[in-house]
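Below is a filled-in request sheet from our internal design queue. Each sheet records the structural input a requester submitted and the sequence that came back. We keep these sheets so that new team members can see what a complete request looks like end to end.

REQUESTER: design group, bay 2
PRIORITY: normal
MODE: inverse folding
CHAIN LENGTH: 295
BACKBONE (tokenized):
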């Protein structure tokens, strides 16, 4: 009996030790920032995809035509989203937007131009990363050489995108040649929507603003120099809106954080600080107000 008790004791010690070692190994192999299964997610993750990249290249060949694509370098694509960064410089023939006629007038109307843009973006959806229904036309402005640039903003998420993401630009000439195309849109599917919806906001607007008190914030100024500023009690600090703030950790993944956009300083050129709404961490800071609140 004594022998059996000793044996059972040794087995129990071995089981406990094994469980401890397995738990430690799991903790060591779990990527940094990725929560345990029992923890609420801190952010959603978009991973690079060969399927998405292949779809973008196939869309490119359709837009410019197979012979033109074969004689031209493949356009540079964003590393994770596989959206177009710019058109190749050696493109022999630019793609064209479809000609649309709503009336018999010889000059194109604004509505005809917008419809041409809509049809072009629909045909280029895999290259742009999102469909037309997920984009809002912001403005059409003059560009170099008499061309015009149409700027779109992605509206796929419950909160506006920041950190340079969600912007699509199409530059075109009067004869509807597309001479510039770029997109920082984020391809969205149901899995990504669910993952982002599962991120729990633990910080209120007031707490996000209060979290910056006496905090040193590093940012890049308008001249490209890195600066550090300590938020003082005399600074006007206000959380403006919740945003989706993508962070590039490497060339294969994007982290989509829900964050508070906090304004520090005067209304003309404030320091915008992005505070993670789930953890309270400062994700980034920038000078100026590039995008209006709530947009």
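RETURNED SEQUENCE:
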């Amino acid at each position: 009996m004594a022998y059996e008790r000793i044996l059972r004791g040794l087995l129990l010690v071995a089981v406990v030790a094994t469980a401890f070692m397995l738990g430690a190994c799991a903790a060591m192999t779990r990527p940094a920032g990725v929560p345990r299964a029992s923890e609420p997610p801190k952010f959603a993750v978009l991973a690079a995809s060969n399927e998405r990249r292949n779809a973008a290249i196939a869309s490119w060949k359709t837009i410019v035509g197979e012979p033109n694509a074969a004689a031209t370098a493949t356009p540079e694509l964003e590393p994770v989203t596989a959206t177009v960064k710019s058109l190749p410089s050696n493109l022999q023939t630019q793609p064209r937007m479809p000609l649309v006629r709503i009336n018999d007038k010889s000059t194109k109307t604004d509505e005809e131009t917008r419809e041409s843009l809509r049809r072009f973006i629909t045909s280029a959806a895999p290259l742009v990363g999102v469909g037309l229904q997920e984009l809002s036309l912001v403005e059409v402005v003059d560009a170099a050489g008499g061309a015009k640039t149409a700027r779109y903003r992605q509206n796929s998420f419950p909160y506006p995108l920041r950190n340079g993401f969600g912007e699509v630009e199409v530059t075109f000439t009067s004869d509807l040649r597309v001479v510039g195309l770029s997109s920082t849109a984020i391809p969205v599917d149901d899995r990504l929507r669910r993952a982002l919806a599962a991120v729990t906001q633990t910080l209120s607007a007031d707490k996000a603003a209060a979290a910056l008190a006496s905090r040193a914030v590093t940012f890049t100024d308008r001249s490209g120099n890195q600066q550090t500023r300590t938020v003082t009690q005399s600074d006007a600090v206000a959380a403006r809106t919740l945003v989706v703030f993508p962070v590039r950790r490497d060339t294969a993944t994007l982290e989509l954080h829900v964050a508070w956009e906090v304004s520090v300083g005067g209304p003309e050129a404030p320091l915008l600080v992005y505070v993670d709404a789930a953890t309270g961490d400062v994700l980034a800071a920038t000078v100026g107000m590039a995008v209006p609140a709530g947009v």
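SHEET NOTES:
- Residues 201-287 form one domain.
- The two ends are 75 Å apart (CA to CA).
FILED BY: M.R.
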